[in-house]
Fold these 4 entries.
Entry 1:
Amino acid sequence: TWPLDSPWTSPTGDQKDERCPICLDKFENKKQLKCKHEFCKDCLRRAQEANGPICPICRVVFGKIVGDQPDGRMSHQILTIPLPGYSDCGTIMISYEIPSGTQTEKHPNPGQRYFGIRRQAYLPDNKEGNEVLRLLKKAFGQKLIFTIGTSRTTGMDGQVTWNDIHHKTSTSGGPDCFGYPDPEYLSRVKEELKAKGIE
């Protein structure tokens, strides 16, 4: 049980928060998020500036997250060849192209060059695969698919790299080769997208 003088406990002991969980002081201009957590308006603004529109307690996204992905192009086409594990449908092939350019103030080294990439990824051309495609397009529009950093494969800085939304970049080889079959992939990537407010 909480001690009676805990900031998390009301005088009646019903554990109703009467203090902001960020500054631990009495609420000033209280703001409640859709997840029902409450904060001082200024505390929430500062938390949002630091971490984006994400609840500091439960991590639910309450606004639109925009990333630092450089400008580029996303397109897709339908292939008739099925993916392993999806023999009843064709394949969606996504193509990403991010040209090289100069880093902005949003990036690790403003003013320095970054090196672009071309990547392809694959989804089954079924209902769930098309739903994931729609979500990925939304994430690309919000600049969340790529970022600029250190390449995991070459170790070089100033590279356009994936940004924590996993893609299947091979049609085969299973999870170890970033390919299919992987029956849990579509539900996993939807959870990754949801964590960034893409639903």
Entry 2:
Amino acid sequence: MSKQMLHLYHINDLHSHLEQWPKIVAFLKDRQRLHDENDETFIRFDIGDHADRFHPITEGTSGKGNVQLMNEAYLLNATIGNNEGITFSKDQLDHLYDEANFQVLVANLKEKDGCFPKWAKPYEIHALANGLKVGVIGVTAPYKAYYEQLGWNIQDPYEAIETAIGKIRSQVDILILLSHLGLEADEQISVEMKEIDIILGAHTHHVLPNGLHTNDTTIGQAGKFGVYIGHMKIVWDEKQRRIEHVKADCIDLQEYGSDEESEKLLLRLTEQANKNLLEVVTVLDQPLDLEWFGDSAFTSILAETIREWCDSEISMVNAGLLLEPLKEGPVTKGDLHRVCPHPINPCKIMLKGEYLKELIHHAMTKELESLEIKGLGFRGKVMGRMVFDGVEIVGEELEDGEYHVQKITVNGEPIAPEKVYSIGAIDMFTFGRLLPSVHYAEEKIYYLPEMLRDVLAWKLKTFER
């Protein structure tokens, strides 16, 4: 027989939307039976951001519950996304894959001494049952400031890919890249590194219904949250020793049935996680009320907490970060995770007074207050009012419905245009164009690995009676 059939299935950016997982497992089991009947080789990959700490199972098991679920899929390899790489501490990531029955590949992540982590390899070569030799390389997005502060050495992914290509291309028939870099990067790689046959992508959540075919490379990406699973059917010409054809598609799993064993595992993991999250952090002698578009005790405490944690002159946080008020009585880790689930860290922004003034004016607009945010680590619904600590803002709401700032003082003094102020804030404000004035920051200092709920726990412990 001169033709071989190889089927690839890839999952990306599940972000702990675990309600989809039993459907994914059921689908993969069905496909396993189908390909076995047709004597076709079948391999599976995860391209990162499987774990997201917004979910109680991920939070309550430090991501190890996700790995147990991934084991059900019998993956050949996985790479990490930024959610695995920079929302877990170094120690947590070092032990995240202790029980994995698949090999994690990350060619551009190393220890400070230049060695690869004990749980990761840059690439792997697989001799498949049909005689094909497949090489797989993994890379992740290089969030340099974060990885370095967490104790990692993150490298340029392009250089890491080129190094790996040089070591394995001559040894394999098909070369696959697991890329948590985003579609734009994948397209660039497909043009510049023609040695790669298949790129399975992630990070930017694109749905590529038929893949992208550039030069002799095929790129696949299957959206987010497990709504789709990616599939590629590769026809290999034995005589010519080359890929004859690749057909890519994304399969919608919304209406697919669930695997019963997978659902049972999810229930067990839920019980385990909930038990771990029952740890009491503090006991409140009065409730902490919450308003997204007005003043409230809980948002004031959050702003005060960020100012203290960052040791800054002032602080600013958006009220939408807190999803629910806290009741009087015991407050558990689970409570804090429920009210503040975001994988968001505190940060300090050093900004000249002229830009701080501009920032405050923008932050007080109704447009920003009512903005519905997607991504940037935010797992809530709406931005909400910007809440400040250490700064006095005087103004009034006029007929246009806007709050017009008339006077701003810090420590009783008007803002000095050339003075650099330290602002305790959240890392979300430093990404994208949410607050354009932050672009002019003299310095940005990130506080890791603690997330907002960890910092809140630290503060609320002082409330114990």
Entry 3:
Amino acid sequence: SAMDSLTQFVLGAAVSTALLGRKIGPRKAALVGGALGTLPDLDVFIPFDDPVDSFVYHRGWTHSVFVHALVTPILGEGLLRLFRGLRAHRWLVWTAVFLCLSTHAIIDTMTVYGTRIFWPVYSDPVGIGSVFIIDPLYTLPLLAVVVWALFRKSWTPRLGNWVTAALLLSTGYLALSIAVQQFVAVKANRIFLENGGPPDKVYALATPLNILVWKVIGLREDSYDNLYISLLDGPGPAEIYTHPRNPELLSCLEETGTFQKLNWFSRGFFTTDLIDGNVVLSDLRMGLTPGYAFRFVIGEMGDAGIRPAGPERLLDTVRVEEGDWDWLQARLLGRPGVRHAEADLLDLSGDSVVASCSSGGPAAG
């Protein structure tokens, strides 16, 4: 998203200004770093055969620190030729290039989507989920010093101090987010124990734009819980919503490559629904129920039963439901709230589907 790209630009620009601003001036250093910080995301232009591949393989090799180490000398030498003021400082320039690229990958790993930061040594995405993809408290201090740097042709120690301070502050915020995530997970496990027993897997995720309110997914074989926790919550009943996962819809689709990729990428945090005769798989980690950001049609219900279909991305969902901002505001302040978008779903859940597999037709995947 654009805001996400802004974050990557200002982080690269701040890193580069801190390291190279003294040598080539803040403005040039900020522009160089911003460009380098955006570079790994050029992988969005790599064409993929199907929508599932472009979903699960995004943030791939261009985000690997090993690849960054390999391209650092090439980009570094280019900068040495471009700027006379850098010629005597090869190691400094290479360090700046590597850090502009790798810090991009590092903040991507902080989000839930994850990043293949250690490809090809460890090729699964690493995704912590302790910050939302857009977090003003992280981005604004960096944005402020970068705007200042872009208006300054010549270096001043004062600017240097502020850039360093902004980098320390934003990095400290990320460290804090991981500590809060651990705290929330412990609290969530306790709440699940008191409310019907521990789920198979628990994942605490920051909600949009903040690290005060958390969504914790409690995953079970045939259902999942969304538990919302605010750091300012007082004593009182927990805000938990339970939804069906309809695993029976998948019995015919578990062998398909499409399902296996989505299962792997979501780490098992998915749900399935029957929508207009289509079997739709949603990644539970991204977006608030029911407005999941990533939903794919992977099967269809015919007369003979369910058979593989697609895959195609389902784009019919509203990201922010009515009343969500009021709900989030109340929860930020630690006031109890009901997320109507989810509470209403609980009344609507229909009968379960008895699914059989269709043997006819070509197998997809």
Entry 4:
Amino acid sequence: MTEPTDADRYPTLNDAGRAVLTRMTEHPAAPLYRNRSGNRLRAEDLPGLAAFEAETLTAPIGWRPGTPPAWIAPYLAQTYAQVPHFRARGTAPRDLAEVPTTARGDLARDIAAFVPDDVPVDRLINFRTTGTTGHPLLIASHPVVAARYLAFHKRALARFGITLRAGPGDVGVVLLGHQQRCFTYVSVTPTMGEAGLAKINLHPDDWRDPADRARYLDAMDAEVIAGDPISFASLLALPVRIRPRALLSVAMMLTDGLRDRLEARFGCPVLDLYSMNEVGPIAVADRAAGGRVLLQPNLYVEIVDAAGRALPPGERGEVCVTGGFNFCLPLVRYRTGDTARLAMAGDTPMLVDFSGRRPVRFRTAQGSWVNNVDISHALAGLTAAQFALHQAADGACVLALSAGALDDAPAARAALRRVLGDVPVRVEPIESEDKVLQYTSDLAGSTAG
């Protein structure tokens, strides 16, 4: 396969976009960008994206807990007709409750079976996610799908009175990571006048001089900074002078304490987004409303019990979604693994008493910390369907592997030793057949914030 060119990565690139790419990569304090990526959007994609954004910003959610919207029936009929996994079941049921639930493990076994027949394969893209369940997963997507995320981020920002202004010549967004190994790149956003986007790693190994991290962030002066609680905790330790208009926290749960510290330091709202690679942005936390307000007009949310039965409104159970905006991966009763109950914030449904993925870091034998994402990378070669790692108060670890995968124990210990050093690791089987909490620790300081 030939290496993509800049024309492939940025088909609409203009002089302003070219200049901001140069600025982000050639600044004296720039990090060591380890990868190359791009938006791959064509000029003919942009009018449709503008229309999608306009609709997303104004459309009501349009349903109440326990009452599926009118679009569910035609959506089921189309999905059962075009998606191999569902077509194999026969005729689409009339009632959504009759559809068995699906989960991450189903997608991991055969993602191709969940891609509709009519999706053009010439522009199909995929990316790998390790997630929190132990199921490595390829997500089927498309450049237009990736670009649609921005509409939901704008909807979330609008709830807090923020309208994005970045345009030609500006750096619109900097995405933060803090991992031993991190995908880093620069790109531009055609729907915002080719404003710049940079994904950077705050780990010192990705910089010529660790002090360059603050210099670079100040020089880029991005309108929005996005990251997870671990990378934001690292950001707080840097002597930056930036004043972004908002911080977006994604991928992990954000504690109120860390959010308060970030808002006090940077003088802007910190939006805690509930987002999944399979689903995209689902909800944004709103303390005034008392929960996480849903963002997608074409996503229906149920709360289900362990058997997949929809619970009455107000009861707490697992968040289960149908619909979405990724036309490459239509979801039907997809179990997220997170728990909540449904309530209303005015005329919009919201998730209350939410419990989801929690950021955990692990202490090495040398006394430093590593991100749980680094653990996922280290254990990516496991054959186990699930694994869970717990670090005790004395620093020793217990790695639990799913049944039939204990033969992986020697390789797993060796992989953890490369990340954690000479930390004692005991391997034991996972006793439960249900989803496990993947990363836990008894050590003080193991959770950001």
